[in-house]
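Hi X.,

You mentioned you wanted examples for the new student's onboarding notes, showing what a folding record looks like when two proteins sit in one file. Here is a clean example. The first protein comes first, with its sequence line followed by its structure tokens.
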Amino acid sequence: MTENQNLTKEKMNHVLVSDYAWLLEKGKEGGLLWNGSMADLCVWTHQLFLQFAITDKHGNARQYKSLMREICALTHRDMPHNPNSYLSHSQKEDYAWNKTFTTRYKEIFLSGDEHPISHFLSRKKDE
């Protein structure tokens, strides 16, 4: 891996954690909706989990399912019974008409968007 690729990967990892903090802040205001697929949500959460940067009140790294529960609640999605099953199905190779979530997220990041995750969210309309 070149130095430039390492730098980009490091920045992407920072953006993942930054997006999580942004999601927590905006989620507390209420009304966030996840517009992407459940597979996309599971992949993003799993990538976040792999950073081991999100900790519980005791300083231990959060578990994947714990993060999924929290993020599903913030984005008004039902927690899947087996989020790992979405991960295995979402690892298909990219091709012209079907890019993986990770590729789409990276493209948004490389375009200069401060919070790539915002492209997969919307606000709930008042009823």
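Then the second protein repeats the pattern, sequence line and then tokens:
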Amino acid sequence: MTQTAPRQKIKTAKQTKQTSVANPEIDNEVSTNITKIPEVKKKKSTSANPDTPTEPIEKKRNKQKKSKSKLNPPIPRELGMEVICEQAKFYDALFLVNCATPAKPSHPILANVLIIADVETQQIHLTVTDIALTIQASFAAQVLLKGEITVPVQILLEIVKHCPNGTISLNSQTQVTQSSDDDKQQTKICCLCLSDADGKYEIRGISAEEFPPTNIIDAAPVSLATTIFKDGLKGVLYAVSTDENKYILTGVHLQLAQEKLKFIGTDGHRVAITELCTHRIGRKTRQEVSSQEVQSQQVPSEEIMQFTLPGRVVREIARNLNDDVESINLLYDDQSNRLGFAWQDVVLSCQVVEGIYPDCEQLLTKFSFEKEVILEKAPLVKALERLSVLTDKKEKGIYLQFDGSLQQLRLSIEREFGKGDQVIVANLPTEMMLNIQFNLKYLIEAAKAIPSSSIKMHLQQSDHPAMLVPDGDRANPEVEMSMRHVLLPLYIPNG
């Protein structure tokens, strides 16, 4: 009996584990043991290190989850402009403003073009600046959403240039990112998407907030006829210096009075002066008034508005101002010393060249020009161009021999490797015999700048300058214009 009892107990214990419902009395005993077992396991699992609580472990897990979520946060995107425009208009505007892009920009933003989509006016405004010169061009487009962005102008120009004729879609978006918890500064990643019928392009840009502010010139506009303004610029532009050491001479000096507009250009070796009649184009509106009222309204000489335009600005205006434009508005702010020109959908502003421009008028009063010679422009230019092939870097002079008895002018040039002579008909005094030498390049440029069929040359002697003025038929006879081109001679050795 003593041997079977334990076996039965063991067997009943196994049975109770399998079927606890069959023996309720034994189930009570086993249940007490079963309830104790989890407690022991819990104690073993927690009593391995009784000093470490469970709360820090949960906090660490929560931190790990948070850190993982912060590693890849959703990047917010801001939608910008949505525009549909014509390829031809877009390219023409980009080509125009690209002239203001600096060759070596001091900051990446200066190599970009500012693109502003205006919903109200349904226009796109493009702006490029190198601080000294700013050009803005606008054109009509279908603006669905407004926005602004800056992208590299050279890249955008080449892409639009090779796009097929038709419509182009522009879309911009901005992504705002934050690097870490410590650094709360946000970084904006801007992008411009351009798509046409054949493909799609994406250009990384810079936020428009970093673009330099455009200076608004607060001045009353002065309206000038385009033909007058362009003729005045072309008449003196060739004489402007390219030497940066003579910075003031790299610009064109402009004087604006009530009825006169004068352009002056010089490089120290030649002087070009063009004076045009503007028919009361002052700051007041044009009115039909009597001669006495006109005299009272004229600006005194001491109040003449004068400034020096940078040569680069003058060249851009002369190149981009089309003949179909009737007038151009001039704006000058003497407080900021900044000048602006506006025509059609183009606005050009620049900083005026600072310094005192030489008084060329006073310089010319020291010389007299008593002898006159009349030459046909076309034969003179043709002869000079044929002889120019014999010039070199060391010697650029050409001899002019005026013979009154033969009524002719002999042009000659001689070098070590060759020589040449050209004879053209001239109208000059019969007793006149004069030899003088000029820089061939300067003489050709002065002759080409004169807008007439004939040229009148005023001379005195071989060591005095010569003055060239228009004579005969002119291209724009309706424009009242006087033009003077003065060349200093090259002194003849042993002469």
